[in-house]
Design a protein that fits this description.
The chain contains 4 helices and 2 strands, in the order βααβαα. It is mainly alpha-helical and about 80 residues long. The protein has one domain. It has a two-stranded parallel sheet with strand order 1-2. It is flat, with a radius of gyration of 14 Å.
């Protein structure tokens, strides 16, 4: 899971631009022949997102990377993800 933030501030946009990271993860997981999904989250939807991961696992054990470093001022989670 990665933080998502919609903003018009170019400095903050730069910090939340994960396009290069998505390309790198795509390459690695394709090479490993692993299913994966880039999942952006906010303070408003992280609980629902975690529940959806649980419900859609189809008997598989999901592995979740928490890339959220917490910017609660701008509405992105950190420690909240660890409590779910």
């Amino acid at each position: 899971m990665a933080p998502y933030l919609h903003t018009d501030d170019p400095n903050i946009q730069y910090y939340y631009d994960f396009s290069q990271g998505v390309k790198e993860y795509t390459k690695v997981f394709n090479e490993l022949n692993c299913e994966w999904q880039w999942q952006p989250v906010t303070m408003n939807d992280y609980k629902h997102t975690i529940e959806q991961i649980r419900l859609s696992s189809n008997g598989k054990l999901p592995l979740v990377f928490n890339l959220c470093d917490g910017d609660e001022v701008n509405g992105t989670p950190e420690h909240q993800l660890l409590m779910n």
